[in-house]
Amino acid sequence: MTDDSSRAARSQDALAEDAPGTDGPDVDGLGEDGIRRMRVAWRGATRVLSRTSAERRIGVRLADLAAHAGGVYDLDESVDMYGDGVVTELERRTARLLGMEDAAFFPTGTMAQQVALRCWAGRTGNSTVALHPRSHAELHERDALHEVSGLRTVHPTTGPRLPTADEVSRLGEPFGTLMLELPLREAGFVLPSWEELTEVVEAARERDAVVHFDGARLWECAPHFGRPLEEIAALADSVYVSYYKSLDGISGAALAGPRTLVDEARAWRHRYGGDVFHQFPAALSALLGMERELPRLPQCVAHAKVVAQALGEGFRAARTPWSRVHPEVPHTHQFRVWLPYAAEVLTEAAVRQAEETGVALFHRWFPCPEGPPGIAFCEVTVASQGLEWTAEDVVAAVAGFIGRIA
């Protein structure tokens, strides 16, 4: 691969941010010029439901951090070195939020979860992990659980949802850990009910297995369950959370759980190369996200229901041949939309709408990996920027978007 094509591939992968429905870099022929055009269009839009990290300028991000980080941590303190200082403070606050004994900061969620699962494999004596086949660990980590950590996986269900207690109970072989992704992104950011979640956890316990939550997006699950974060986390033996997916952090993740497990995880973090010399920008932005974004998430979850219903009404009003919003009533502040057009056609319409009107209703569209040709889907996030949208605004934006489909 040439330097130019390699840069393009990396740029497209970053733009997609773990492109949904794919198991590798999402290279669909956009090229660097196409990616640049999308970024300019999204960045210039004045009405958005959310802002993606691909739209951010370095200078603006640094200025925001310098202007506001002093409100969450004393900037006269020394910079961190190998995880002390501000990183230790972030770990402490995270553990407290989740009601866990301790938490360890990791540069990536992939590393955090590999470490958690291999630690549990050593403690249970069973290296088999039960998880959904469309979980992040199976689709977006290049088989790291198998290739790096020596773990094997089994699937209690292949349905577009989390496994049921009955499916976990009937799984035909022993497993040491049950890993649940909350919410399950590839199925449309779906969650079980609180009763279903407690039952499936109990079913795993009856199989003498531990339970680990892939909680990259756990922060926004509390409204659906009607429970505080610490009560949700208490169901699991360990929990991973991300700082950039919903909290708008720069990067980073945490593994929370019993102190003995977290101590062991820190040792493995070192072995995996995760003890970074300075991490204060990521730690400060995570603290800011916990201060600014976390309290807004319940409102975003509630408003996502308004937006989802209005999208359906807008598609019907625009006489769209077929459409699907799923879940029809979103479980979090994120959901998926399907339309019967090629992905490149819908992405072009979204970019043109942003360029011509300053309204970015949708971002990038993707071919359905398991559907018939000619069907594409888009992930919709209703963040703080989308709270000002009324249902009427959404219906009008749908009309403008459909009108631009070539």
Automatic annotation (TrEMBL):
Residue stretches spanning the membrane: none
Domain Aromatic amino acid beta-eliminating lyase/threonine aldolase: 83-311
Requisite cofactors: pyridoxal 5'-phosphate
Entry keyword set: Pyridoxal phosphate
GO annotation terms (biological process): glycine biosynthetic process; L-threonine catabolic process
Keyword Transcription regulation applies: no
Annotated segments matching region Disordered: 1-32
GO-annotated molecular function: L-allo-threonine aldolase activity
InterPro entries membership: ArAA_b-elim_lyase/Thr_aldolase, PyrdxlP-dep_Trfase, PyrdxlP-dep_Trfase_major, PyrdxlP-dep_Trfase_small
The protein, known as: Threonine aldolase
Any Pfam family matching the protein: Beta_elim_lyase
GO cellular component, one term: cytosol
Family membership: Belongs to the threonine aldolase family.
